Amino acid sequence: PNESGAHTVLPLPMPPSSSRGRFTFNLTFHIRRLATYFAAPPDRLFWEFNRSFPFDRRLIGEEIAASRGYALALGRCRAIPAKHAARLDRGLARVLAKYEADPSYADIDVEDVHSFVETRLEEEIGPLAGQGHLGRSRNEQSVTALRLFIRGAIDDLRPRIRDLVEVLATR
Known about the structure:
The protein has 171 residues and is mainly α. Helices cover 61% and strands 4% of the residues.
């Protein structure tokens, strides 16, 4: 911030604050203005079109496995205290156990599998749940869960393919 508390950012359509062509604006004003765009819930049709949870809920086990590993890694490298990592891990284990015991536990209105895990984890352990993805992008979460899912599907198919090859070889 400069002396008046304003921030310099390029390029916003604001009056120039200097001869160098930089633009100055009040950050708080713009954050509040931006927040008004998100004050109302999204249009229901848009929400249903955009949400992937009805499809990717099948990745709950893989998402939780990846999140548990990541949380423990955060603790090992001291990005978060080890006791927080352990609480995250236990909370994630409880979320998975509840889902496996009762699949209707996943019947909530969330955007995707990541939102489901975050929501249920926060119910289990409170605001600490927000530390579970420290430094982890949504893309990385998605790719990791999908890779684990595909790896599991391949492992499930291997004995079936072996059996099929044996049957075909004997005919």
